[in-house]
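Researcher: Structure prediction, please.
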Amino acid sequence: MPVAAPPPPRTPVAWRRPAATLLLAAALLAPAARAEDAPAPAARAEDAPAPVVRTGVAGCRRVALTFDLCPVRAPYGYDAKLVERLVATKTPATFFASGRWMAKHDDRVAELLAVPFFELGTHGAAHAHLRTMDAGAQEEEIAAAIALLAAKRGTSPTLFRPPYGEYDTTTQRVAAALGQTVVLWSAVSGDPSPASSAEVMLHSLRPQLRDGAIVIMHANGRGVHTQALLEKLLLAIAAAGLTPVTVGELLRPCPDATAS
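Model: Predicted structure follows.
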């Protein structure tokens, strides 16, 4: 009796965990009801590493103000007065929100998305140390926050800031496979330190306010003096002949752009 040929072997797919990613996104959403899940694309081992962006295109006299929305235990997790001031002054800004933060501040996510000159990227699901994780775990951490925004708000973020600014080549490959641009910064405010006054932070930031700079601050309540810094920083940016834009715009060329 002839023996049937065995089926061809299945090609293994490196570090794909779509089910785990959806479970993590679902955990972030619980107990609130949500729209149908939209899983992020699975990462592949052959994907080229994504570049890490620290500055934007030079030659346009632009600067990007960015605000991290990391999860916090207390007291509130959202600097409403800071955001209100950004809106009042019509200042473009880019926010990087973690999945845990979004799950606890869904109304704030909606408010940020409703401002036409704001931009929302992601900051991981649980604000984890990516370099301590294998590729599969990194994919879950990055993709879950993306899936959360897709499920709750129908939006597909493309900017990702690694928690603590920590990453490795695995992070870059996973981010690239998920369609993300990895965004760090070139100008550090130091606003999480309660000992840093607005004047001290501005003194440190002023020489870093160059064409194409990306400034990092926080809007999750950790920056005790961030709002006061913003008032002074906007004046310093204008005095330097720079214009605030979102990170997305900062990365796009302009008619008179030159190579940095």
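Model: The longest strand covers residues 62-69.
Researcher: Thanks, that helps.
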